[in-house]
Design goal:
The chain is α/β, with parallel strands linked by helices and about 300 residues long. The protein is built from nine helices and 17 strands. The chain has helices at about 20-40, 50-65, 75-100, 135-145, 170-180, 210-220, 255-260, 270-280, 295-300, and strands spanning about 5-10, 40-45, 105-110, 115, 130-135, 150, 155-160, 170, 185, 195-200, 200-205, 225-230, 235-240, 245, 250, 290-295, 305-310.
């Protein structure tokens, strides 16, 4: 594709937590996306789904308990549901913002499956907490089914899932064709629906893929120019929460690796953003990763603010 591509990874603040919050949040997100399109870049969007998939998982399993004739919804199905309803709100908000500006560009959401390795080490050490608080009896039943649970400091238990690394995006050609046709594409929501290849079949896995790593893979496979990760801060800082706090402006991948080795970034939060950003840059030429908040998305793209890795 000749036109510059920007993969925009939206954090949970760009989507809100509840249904009403999401309706409001996506309007602001749509403005940021329209600003980027006005910059002349082809935008492909990925997004988080933490609160949303947790809500769906809880609701579907409570329904299953109340109605024994229905089966419980597996995690992969909950992930697919979250992609659908987040995409629904997001693409409609972007469409409305485009039309208000006289931009005539289609927006589409792709249910996206991402292949994981069934032997990924993450399955031995699950870390993603999901679902409602369980009683001790319910926790034991989960463990009997082969699931992992963790005891909460405040009492009760919750289920925990593995966060395996993404290896391949099944629908990447669909995303590429739509982007080449000039559409804004929403894909790999929530890190993608985790699936395992078994012969010609794709079977859903009980896991949650780290959204930032899937966004980085999406950017790599599309040969994007920019990976724009929108999070809760305008710039990333070192020595966070101390009197030695220092904001990062433009840094090299080597500098970024040094900070990672010094444990400057929180696992499961800022660390995967750097892992994804560095991998994306090192697998192509002329690439950059920008980390900032949604308010400064356009200024970050212009390199006027944000933490920029090159």
């Amino acid at each position: 594709m000749s036109k510059k591509i920007t993969v925009v990874a939206l954090g949970h603040r760009a989507l809100g937590t509840t249904l009403p919050q999401q309706k409001i949040a996506v309007r602001q997100t749509a403005k940021a996306i329209a600003d980027l399109v006005a910059e002349g870049t082809q935008v492909v969007i990925s997004h988080s789904n933490g609160p949303q998939v947790g809500m769906i998982h809880t609701a579907m399993n409570e329904f299953g308990k109340a109605h024994p004739d229905y089966t419980f919804a597996p995690m992969s199905v909950c992930s697919a549901m979250s992609q659908g309803y987040i995409g629904y709100d997001l693409q409609n908000a972007i469409r409305a913002e485009f039309l208000s500006r006289g931009i005539y560009k289609p927006v589409s959401t792709i249910l996206t499956q991402v292949v994981i390795d069934p032997y990924d080490e993450a399955f031995a050490e699950p870390e993603k907490i999901i679902g409602r608080v369980l009683s001790e009896e319910e926790a034991e039943l989960e463990e009997e089914k082969g699931n992992f649970v963790t005891k909460l400091p405040e009492g009760g238990y919750r289920r925990i899932l593995a966060a395996p690394k993404p290896h391949k995006i099944i629908e990447i050609e669909t995303v590429r064709v739509l982007a080449e046709a000039g559409q804004v594409v929403i894909a790999a929501g929530g890190g993608g629906i985790p699936v395992m290849e078994q012969g010609i079949d794709l079977n859903g896995a009980s896991a949650i893929i780290e959204k930032d790593l899937a966004s980085g893979l999406l950017a790599e496979e599309l040969d994007a120019d920019t990976l724009l990760i929108l999070t809760s801060v305008e710039k990333v800082s070192l020595n966070l929460g101390t009197d030695r706090e220092e904001f990062l402006d433009t840094i090299s991948t080597e500098e970024a690796k040094k900070h990672m080795a010094q444990n400057q970034f929180t696992p499961g939060s800022m660390l995967p953003k750097f892992e994804a950003g560095i991998s994306f840059i090192e697998k192509g030429e002329g690439r950059r990763t920008i980390i900032t908040d949604i308010t400064h998305a356009r200024d970050g793209y212009r390199e006027k603010t944000g933490t920029i890795i090159k």
